[in-house]
Amino acid sequence: MIQDWFGKAKLGIFIHWGIYAVNGIAESWSFGRGDISYEDYMKQLEGFTASKFDPQKWAALFREAGARYAVLTSKHHDGVALFDTKYTDLNTVKKTPAGRDLIAPYCKALKEQGIKTGIYFTNTDWADLDNMQVILDKSTDEIIEMRKEKTDFGARWQEVIAASKKNPVVTPEKTAAWQRFMERYRGEIKELLENYGGVDLLWFDVMLAREGYSWEVQQVREMIYSISPQTVINGRLVGAGDYFTPELYIPLRAPEEPWELCTTFNDSWGYQPNDHHFKDIRQIVRMFVECISKGGNMLISVGPDPEGTIPPEVEAQMKALGRWTHQYEEAIYEPEKGIGTEYFAGGTTLSADKQTLYLFVYDKPHRQVMMNGIRNNIRRVTALKNGRELSWSVTGGASWVNMPGCIWIETQEDDLDDVCTVLKVELEGPIDLVELDGQENSVGEN
Predict the structure, then answer these.
(1) In what side-by-side order are the strands of the sheet with 232-233?
(2) What residues form DSSP beta bridges with 202?
(3) Environment class of residue 435 by beta-carbon count within 10 Å: exposed (0-12), middle (13-18) or buried (19+)?
(4) Against a cut of 0.85, is the pTM above it?
(5) What is the pLDDT of residues 372-409, one digit of tens each?
(6) What three-state secondary structure class fits 395?
(7) Is the Cα torsion angle 244, 349, 71, 43 positive or negative in sign?
(8) Angle between helices 153-166 and 129-136 (to 10 degrees)
(9) 267-287 burial, b for 16+ CB within 10 Å, e for fewer?
């Protein structure tokens, strides 16, 4: 179930780290869509050293950025586990020069920094022949042959789905294969929950399904909670998750349920040295504010290199983000979602008692900032950058139909932040907004 910490965490760091960093190619999808053969993709195992992996440095940087949780890929769809599992030899302990479990030190370092521990775990494992038998409706020999060439496994799965909807075929052989896969799938989840000192969040991904073969998500959810009742589950354990996870887009309207944007610092989830299209710090902050204004979190991804080093460009972005989040944490972590852009053309958050409104001013105002549709009197307005109290005035309003006027807040150059200005508006009583469908005609009915 959703935990109180999740709604207050606001910012998380996503870490996509695996053998795909060796060639700097897309994680799993580079062979899943046929850009490279499976066999050539797996040659990267030989170059994954993790020789400079410093989890304490990672965790300290995440904390400096203002993140309250982090999520590391324990196993992506390529099936390569970063942890010591008894269910497959395809892991960093047995198959890479790293030669060790990488999840354990990561979890330990996060706990030392007071950061909530998240672990990403793929549902679909494209290295598991039992899983692939069912997904592709092929024999193991056929799959092994397909792996030698560049094969679009995703397109093949779509063909199988289209065919199975018309004529579902469930065979004893495939059923047995699926059961073997599900036993390993549940077993690895259980290892992650039991072996690393407590997991605060499980982040599932990509649940490829086929008629007649069930993921048994409710049973998986029950197993998770029987071991770790405090663990939050993302919505990609389809039908059994705790929150909604839009990918690379911010919902236009605030979702009713808890939610989290997952996004990237540049255009890639993992390490791709040729991707230099990094977002500006103002873009990152504005995206973040859009999320918290709508009651969500932002989980932003970094891809360490095969040695375990976070790229310097991302480290600089995290530090810049941290300078902003730490200065304005009063407006970020404890407050709840804001009041909507109909009332203020920017981001907003609102204190739990509804009596303090925080305004996030994205662009440099021409002296005045305007609010509309707020009936409350104002006690005080403060620029959080310098603590200066600001003056305000009200124009217009139709008191005879209880419609307030426009509120104008006066700002000066010293009040403004180069990244994003934050103003604190203290109200007399809980906020009283004009209902969007309750506006009155000030001259009466025709």
Answers:
(1) 232-233, 201-205, 116-122, 69-75, 11-15, 297-302, 260-264
(2) 119, 233
(3) exposed
(4) yes
(5) 999 999 999 999 999 999 999 999 999 999 999 999 99
(6) strand
(7) positive
(8) 50
(9) ebbbbbeebeebbebeebbbe
